């Protein structure tokens, strides 16, 4: 299948991401195409393998498969088709807000990220590099007023409990947890990273005030954590404290955090903010990426979709029961 490269969306340590358009009769769709030279394609193939386990997950970027192409000078390149995020990354979204995001919107975005993490952890994976640059922005779904966030870039993801051959600092230093410095990698790392992201959305600044990797390591190993914003709601501060528990075995997991009272609060109970929420996502029609089907020849088997739908229904039922019990226990539900 032939694709037309429109522009470069970004470059990483081992590949390039292009905005592409499929060249096929009566088929006019756009995608993100992530490409890497064959000799550097290990991470890309690994990412494809992982992402295909998350078909139809609403807060994880969708992958439609991969293929090998022959480029200039007979160079072999491996490519994977991804859904295109017209809103860029969470960093771009923060800029549109003026740097900081109102807490009422942070509340919603945090829940979206947690929904994605729950899927990742229930499949037995750890993202290991959760940060604003790896969270992509899509048009609203399910009649919501806010953009949809999806977790992307699984190049450093690993299996829970599998011996790690990675040497040195894993991920991005500003979002790393204390235990990850000494090589202890679990789902708790992603939760710590989430807390750092929430701090950054609220303050508009990096979670730490130092750029020195050694000083940051020392802070983490001494038991320090990013400062919790003073102007945040009390329940918001409580939520972050659970993300920044030093002991990874006592840090709340994604399922428990989704039932934290902070995420169950109605909007009018959050702090007032003069800043306005962004209007519904608007982009030129040609750049929209909602409900885009896979490219020709890259269809997902129906059995995979049916299994995913069944799992989603079971998760939703469990979460509704947990949410009811949590709200009842904390007095936020009148019975």
Tell me about this structure.
It holds the Pfam family Pkinase. Belongs to the protein kinase superfamily. The protein has helices spanning 42-51, 90-97, 103-122, 178-181, 187-203, 213-221, 234-243, 254-257, 261-264, 302-330; strands at 2-11, 16-23, 30-37, 63-70, 76-82, 125-126, 135-138, 148-151, 158-159. The radius of gyration is 20 Å and the shape is globular. The protein has 2 domains: 2-85 and 287-300, Phosphorylase Kinase, domain 1 (2-Layer Sandwich), CATH 3.30.200; 90-269, Transferase(Phosphotransferase) domain 1 (Transferase(Phosphotransferase), domain 1), CATH 1.10.510.10. The chain has 335 residues and is an alpha+beta fold. Residues 280-290 have low confidence and may be disordered. It is built from 10 helices and 9 strands. 34% of the residues lie in helices and 16% in strands. The chain has a 5-stranded antiparallel sheet with strand order 1-2-3-5-4, covered by helices on one side. A two-stranded antiparallel ribbon has the order 6-9.
């Amino acid at each position: 299948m032939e694709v037309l490269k429109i522009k470069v969306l970004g470059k990483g340590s081992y590949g390039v991401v292009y905005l592409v358009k499929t060249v096929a009769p009566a088929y006019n769709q756009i995608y993100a195409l992530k490409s890497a030279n064959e000799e550097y394609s290990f991470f890309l193939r690994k990412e494809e393998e992982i992402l295909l386990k998350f078909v139809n997950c609403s807060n994880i970027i969708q992958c439609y498969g991969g293929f090998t192409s022959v480029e200039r000078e007979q160079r072999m390149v491996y490519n994977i088709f991804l859904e295109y995020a017209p809103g860029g990354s969470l960093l771009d979204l923060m800029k549109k807000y003026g740097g900081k995001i109102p807490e009422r919107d942070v509340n919603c975005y945090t829940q979206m990220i947690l929904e994605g993490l729950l899927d990742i952890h229930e499949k037995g994976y750890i993202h290991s590099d959760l940060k604003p640059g790896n969270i992509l922005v899509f048009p609203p779904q399910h009649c919501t007023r806010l953009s949809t966030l999806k977790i992307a870039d699984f190049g450093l993801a690993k299996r829970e409990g599998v011996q790690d051959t990675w040497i040195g600092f894993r991920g991005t230093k500003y979002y790393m947890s204390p235990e990850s410095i000494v090589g202890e990698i679990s789902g708790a790392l992603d939760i710590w990273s989430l807390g750092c992201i929430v701090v950054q959305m609220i303050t508009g600044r990096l979670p730490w005030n130092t750029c020195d990797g050694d000083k940051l390591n020392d802070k983490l190993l001494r038991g320090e954590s990013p400062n919790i914003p003073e102007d945040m709601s009390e329940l918001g501060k409580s939520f972050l404290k659970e993300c920044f528990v030093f002991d990874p075995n006592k840090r709340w997991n994604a399922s428990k955090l989704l039932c934290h009272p902070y995420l169950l609060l109605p909007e009018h109970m959050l702090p007032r903010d003069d800043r306005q929420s962004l209007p519904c996502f608007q982009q030129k029609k040609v750049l929209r990426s909602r409900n885009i089907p896979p490219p020709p020849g890259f269809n997902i088997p129906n059995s995979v979709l049916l299994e995913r739908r069944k799992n989603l229904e079971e998760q939703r039922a469990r979460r509704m029961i947990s949410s009811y019990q949590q709200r009842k226990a904390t007095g936020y539900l009148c019975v």
